[in-house]
Write a structure and sequence with these properties.
With 308 residues, the protein is an alpha/beta fold. The protein has helices spanning 29-39, 53-65, 88-99, 140-150, 166-172, 194-203, 224-233, 237-247, 259-264, 273-280, 282-286; strands spanning 5-7, 13-15, 19-20, 43-45, 75-80, 106-109, 159-162, 182-186, 206-210, 251-252. Helix 2 (53-65) crosses helix 3 and helix 7 (224-233) crosses helix 8 (237-247). The model has no long low-confidence stretch (mean pLDDT 96).
Length: 308
């Protein structure tokens, strides 16, 4: 199942398992990308905000030059950062230059949260009171409309979004011409977001799960249900968690810089209905846990984030 491919609404295919590069440090991320490509990965997830694209780009160039893989056989994503919502193509060009590419297979809006492009920090501008310096005169819908225009440039094969709740998708879809190919959100047994997933399937939007293993040191690995399924199939808890995501029809992008884990993360297995039922029951007992919730001061509309 390591080579499972998923169809996008553009007709293109995306490998179900990709390498995430968030929080992968300089000096490590390049080796991780190269090892992943040599191990059979054909999906690399990048973002301007990660500030490691130059190193990723060098490894991509090395892999292409040495014949490890051809450019057209790797699905590469990049993401527009919040301080560039008014300068969409400029931010894309910056990412393409760093990555050493002519195009990306998917370009996504990282957060539906425009921030002041002329603030006191290029990525995370703050006001004097310490709150995030938001660009309140600009909307995520305007940003997405600008992203639609990129499709005619040849620099992106598809466009998508990240961190969109059902509420935000319902705001966006009636006002745009191109349905996002992907919505990348946090997703794992503590945060299955079934209603969002159902809505996205209805609209033909693929869910890509970031943090599919939970957080670093996540208690998910010790969860009784995860341990049971792992023992039954004689695989690691990590394999179970990634296989859970793929079984739901999602792409998963686990991050690792450890060669053995990078290889192991590619080895997803077929889970049976009883496995999925067992894993699906975890949040019903333990409740919902969201690990990625940055202090942007914006209500993104996720049901678990609403005050009771």
């Amino acid at each position: 199942m390591a080579d499972t491919m998923l169809k996008l609404n553009t007709g293109a295919s995306i490998p179900a398992v990709g390498l995430g590069t968030w929080q992968s440090k300089p000096g490590e991320v390049g080796d991780a990308v190269l090892h992943a490509l040599k191990s059979g990965y054909r999906h690399i997830d990048c973002a301007f905000c990660y500030q490691n694209a130059d190193e990723v780009g060098k490894s991509l160039a090395e892999a292409f030059k040495s014949g490890v893989v051809k450019r057209e056989d790797v699905f590469i994503t990049a993401k527009l950062w919040c301080t560039y919502h008014r300068k969409v193509e400029e931010n894309l060009d910056m990412s393409l230059k760093s990555l050493g590419l002519d195009y990306v297979d998917l370009y996504m809006m990282h957060w539906p949260c425009p921030m002041n492009p002329n603030g006191n920090h290029p990525l995370f501008p703050k006001l004097e009171d310490g709150s995030r310096d938001l660009d309140k005169d600009w909307s995520h819908i305007q940003t997405y409309k600008a992203m639609e225009k990129l499709l005619k440039t040849g620099k992106v094969k598809a466009i998508g979004v990240c961190n969109y709740s059902e509420q935000y998708l319902k705001e966006l879809l009636p006002q745009v011409d191109v349905v996002p190919a992907v919505n990348q959100v946090e997703n794992h047994p503590y945060l299955p977001q079934q209603e969002l997933l159902d809505f996205m399937k209805l609209k033909g939007i693929l869910l890509t799960a970031y943090s599919p293993l939970g957080s670093t040191g996540s208690p998910l690995f010790q969860e009784e249900g995860v341990q049971e399924v792992a023992k039954k199939h004689n695989v690691s808890p990590g394999t179970v968690l990634l296989s859970y995501g793929v079984a739901r029809g999602n792409a998963v992008i686990p991050k690792s810089v450890t060669p053995s884990r990078i290889e192991e993360n590619l080895k997803v297995i077929q889970l049976d209905p009883s496995d999925m039922e067992r894993l699906g029951s975890i949040n019903k007992v333990k409740g919902v846990t969201r690990y990625v919730n940055p202090p942007f001061g914006v209500n993104f509309g996720f049901p678990d984030q609403q005050s009771k």
